[in-house]
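Below is a filled-in request sheet from our internal design queue. Each sheet records the structural input a requester submitted and the sequence that came back. We keep these sheets so that new team members can see what a complete request looks like end to end.

REQUESTER: design group, bay 2
PRIORITY: normal
MODE: inverse folding
CHAIN LENGTH: 145
BACKBONE (tokenized):
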């Protein structure tokens, strides 16, 4: 996930502010909005997982680079939990229902969530006329050492 995010980020960081903020389709929002959403969720899930309720950062006012770095840092925190964690599951309560979420399920959800929104970002980049590399895993393996 990290390598795919980084390859798309290399294009996003070259966008003009207008391109970055432009609403690309009704209901889709902007590339900026997708990055804010990903940062919010990555932060929220990490602190939910640990049972913490710190003050939420002001994601809307973060610079583009700050948002990206924030996600890179939080994804490293999540990855560190693969080897060593103090919580193996948590209870998610919604609409009067409780579901037990195990770590592997949560991590799978995060990968899936990032893939979904990275796809939206890629579509936005293509709508802006940008050439976007493939971020599928198997082609990545052929190009990695």
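RETURNED SEQUENCE:
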């Amino acid at each position: 996930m990290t390598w795919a995010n980084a390859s798309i980020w290399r294009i996003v960081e070259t966008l003009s502010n207008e391109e970055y903020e432009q609403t690309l389709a009704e209901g889709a929002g902007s590339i900026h909005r997708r990055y804010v959403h990903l940062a919010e969720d990555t932060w929220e899930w990490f602190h939910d997982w640990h049972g913490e309720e710190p003050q939420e950062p002001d994601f809307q006012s973060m610079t583009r680079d700050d948002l990206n770095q924030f996600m890179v840092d939080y994804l490293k925190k999540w990855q560190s939990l693969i080897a060593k964690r103090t919580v193996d599951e948590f209870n998610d309560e919604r609409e009067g229902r409780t579901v037990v979420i195990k770590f592997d399920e949560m991590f799978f959800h995060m990968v899936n969530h990032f893939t979904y929104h990275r796809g939206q970002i890629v579509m936005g980049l293509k709508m802006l006329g940008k050439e976007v590399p493939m971020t599928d895993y198997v082609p990545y393996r052929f190009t990695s050492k």
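SHEET NOTES:
- The helical segments are 2-12, 17-21, 31-50, 64-83, 103-127, 137-143.
- The mean pLDDT is 90.
FILED BY: M.R.
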